[in-house]
Design goal:
The chain is mostly helical. The protein has one domain. It is built from 3 helices and no strands. Helix 1 (about 1-15) packs antiparallel against helix 2 (about 20-45) and helix 2 crosses helix 3 (about 50-65). The N and C termini lie far apart (about 35 Å). The model is unreliable at about 75-83 (pLDDT under 50). This is YfcL protein.
């Protein structure tokens, strides 16, 4: 179930390629990394629920924000990619 859930989310991100701005594509790639890491960790723990994925990705993003590793601006903003 968790792999199917991940695949559906990644497909949504991938389907943005034709119409998304550079900033949206950059953010999609950033979220893809958090999602992929969360799924790998959860599979290693034997957890297979969509709620667990949501929780783990949210925690990962909150941790990145707290550490100052958030996407401050995309490639076209002139502000750099990572804060």
């Amino acid at each position: 179930m968790i792999a199917e859930f991940e695949s559906r989310i990644l497909a949504l991100i991938d389907n943005m390629v034709d119409h998304a701005s550079d900033d949206e594509l950059f953010a999609g790639g950033y979220l893809r990394g958090h999602l992929t890491l969360a799924v790998a960790e959860l599979e290693g723990e034997g957890e297979h629920s969509a709620d667990a994925v949501h929780s783990r990705v949210s925690q990962s993003l909150e941790k990145a924000i707290s550490a100052g590793r958030t996407v401050a601006a995309g490639p076209n903003s002139g502000a750099g990619d990572v804060a």
